[in-house]
Amino acid sequence: MRPVTEGRVRVLIETLRLIKLTETVELENIASSAKTTESFARKVLVEALGETDDTWISVSPKLRVNLALEIARAGRLKEAAQVLTWQEFEKFGAECLEEAGFRAERNVRVKAEGRAWQIDLVGFRGELVIAIDCKHWNTTSYISRFKLAAEHQQHATLYLLATVRERRQGLAVILTLREPPAQLVEDTILVSVEKLPSFLGGVTPYDENLPFITSTSSVVENPMSQSS
Predict the structure, then answer these.
(1) What average pLDDT does the chain have?
(2) Helix (H, G, I), strand (E, B) or coil at 17
(3) Please, what is the Cα angle at 25 between 28 and 5, to 5 degrees?
(4) Is the confidence at residue 221, as pLDDT, over 70?
(5) What is the value of pTM for the model shown?
């Protein structure tokens, strides 16, 4: 396993930040922004991406998420999420679910009450179902801003559980880029990307302090699941 140095993390962060604005970026600009030498930046990127052009750097969407995960594992999860687009933010959440042992599905839709209820991410692990709404908001969010989203997530999670035959314990979760103003709104858990891995790693379907929704035998229309 490669040692994760401060210099290496800076190179990865600046690479993602600069490429977020343009499809390719000059190695010289990455090195300058990361306050390091071109030779060091090239070494880091070759290790992370494989062979690269000597002058221009480009990163595929999948590799962007991989770099963000490496940044996160170095304890810089918030910065990792900030250099991702909202689509990549969702995929990043899915990667966190899978690393915590969940089976992850993206863009899940459940039909109920004559409409389709969308859930950005759903994680399945044993009896536990985690339904996550990803809010890639880059501004300070007040508690009132979360109330409608929390109510929606509660309903969507309830309808999702009604389609599951086995008895499951579900949690409605909103994933935020920044630290949320509260941990709970309308029985929906608010968790920042910084705390997502520890939350997923420690959650169990037997925690009496969590607002679980228990699956019932209620029947709704067939769900539509669309993963990407």
Answers:
(1) 86
(2) helix
(3) 60
(4) no
(5) 0.78
